[in-house]
Write a structure and sequence with these properties.
Layout (H helix, E strand, L loop, with lengths): L5 E11 L14 H10 L12 H8 L4 E7 L3 E2 L11 H10 L4 E6 L7 E2 L6 E5 L4 H12 L17 H4 L7 H6 L8 E3 L5 E7 L14 E4 L5 E7 L13 E7 L15 E3 L16 E4 L3 E9 L2 E7 L2 E5 L1 E8 L12 E7 L7 E4 L5 H9 L4 E5 L9 E6 L1
Parallel strand pairs: 1-2, 1-3, 1-4, 4-6, 7-9
Antiparallel strand pairs: 5-6, 8-15, 9-10, 10-11, 11-12, 13-14, 14-15, 16-20, 17-18, 18-19, 20-21
Length: about 400
């Protein structure tokens, strides 16, 4: 089954179990209308914001997915455990012939109950007492089709609908898998460089406007990192733990997000000291290994500006600096560029070089005059090993 794009017709079947243990909740006087309320317009008692199933799907998909809900007559089933495909023999072929893409059993009783027949299947099941996040998760399993992302210790929580089932937005990675976000909206970071990105919060309508990206991908092969902005921009991402920039590791190459190698499909890396999901604030940074730094520079309207730097860095006091023309006897010009060489005390014997490009004399003079360290980003390997990418005060 392909991604959930366009309007899908879904059958919702109320199911009552008269002899359930513990007993089912009383059957609502107008149960079909209560189900339609949950699907079409379900305002929050406190804020009035619509947290209906349809509103969630439209928001999460930026309008690329929608649903046409039909509530069928209530079915009575004297059975304790009702599998999601309990009515396949009775209704399955009929519903498919009528253009239905999925069927959902809506039951009474207490959670947890949400489940789906199988990934990409026709049937799902949930109870009235469960929130929009559970209803959406189970139907997305069928129509997305996106798998559970909380397996093997997945810790995305409310930053990922398919991990937390809280009715918050999926991550940029999941939206791309679902076809709800173009891969072109995710910037591929060039290895060995420092680059600034303006992140458009993933809960806003996608794709992002010109000059912004929905997320940044660091690495070309699994596992790779993703960087995205999350803000409380609507009634769904209003549930996220903290506004800011999150960093997570993608540990599966499966097109439906299914776990591989007994690893969590998505693993959040921005955590509090006691391990709870959080986001980076302005001025904070995340580091991975000796070279990668993700710095949150400032807030922008609807997002954050960040710098991703995975160039190699040397930090220390300048012990030697020289700048001269390639040919000292020739006048300046495009064919007679300045060669700069820098040595720092932390890497004695290793001389950094640059030909043309920025002049670092003023920065080096400031550092030496004021006894400050410099940070040199440089190329590590290959024929240009030691070539300077940038020089800044540390």
């Amino acid at each position: 089954m392909g991604p959930w794009l366009g309007r899908k017709k879904i059958a919702f079947i109320p199911v009552h179990r008269p002899n359930a243990h513990p007993p089912d909740d009383p059957v609502p006087a107008d149960w079909p209308n209560e189900i339609m309320r949950r699907i079409l317009f379900d305002p929050s008692p406190s804020s009035g914001a619509d947290r209906s199933l349809r509103a969630f799907i439209l928001a999460a998909s930026s309008g690329r997915a929608d649903l046409d809900a039909v509530v069928l007559p209530m079915q009575v089933l004297d059975q304790q455990d009702v599998p999601p495909n309990a009515f396949e023999a009775k209704f399955g072929n009929q519903l498919r012939s009528q253009g239905f893409a999925a069927g959902a059993l809506v039951m009474l009783g207490q959670p947890p109950s949400g489940t789906a027949e199988f990934l990409g299947g026709f049937w799902s099941r949930f109870v009235m007492a469960e929130g929009v996040g559970v209803w959406a998760m189970e139907i997305i399993h069928c129509l997305g089709p996106i798998d559970d992302l909380y397996t093997f210790g997945g810790n995305m929580g409310k930053y990922e609908e398919m991990a937390g089932a809280a009715g918050s937005h999926p991550s940029a990675h999941t939206k791309a898998l679902a076809g709800w976000l173009d891969q072109s909206a995710i910037a591929q970071h060039s290895k060995g460089h420092a680059h600034n990105y303006d992140l458009h919060s993933i809960g806003l309508v996608q794709p992002p406007p010109s000059g912004r990206v929905a997320a940044v991908r660091i690495g070309s092969q699994v596992p790779f990192l993703m960087v995205e902005a999350r803000q409380m921009v609507d009634q769904f991402d209003g549930l996220i733990p903290t506004q800011g920039v999150i960093v997570y590791r993608v540990q599966t190459s499966d097109p439906h997000g299914t776990a591989q190698n007994a690893l969590a499909p998505l693993h959040l890396l921005t955590l509090t000291n006691d391990g709870r999901p959080t986001a980076l604030q302005v001025g904070q940074s995340f580091t991975s290994g000796p070279n990668l730094t993700i710095q949150v520079n400032k807030a922008i309207a609807g997002g954050f500006s960040v710098t991703v730097d995975d160039s190699l860095n040397g930090v220390g006091f300048v012990t030697f600096y020289e700048a001269e023309r390639q040919d000292p006897d020739q006048p300046p010009g495009p064919h007679n560029q300045v060669i700069e060489t820098i040595e720092i005390d932390s890497m004695l014997g290793f001389v950094f070089t640059s030909v043309g490009g920025p002049h670092y004399k003023a920065i080096v003079k400031n550092a030496t005059d004021n006894n400050l360290q410099v940070r040199i980003a440089y190329v590590a390997t290959g024929p240009q090993s030691g070539r300077i990418i940038s020089v800044t005060l540390a």
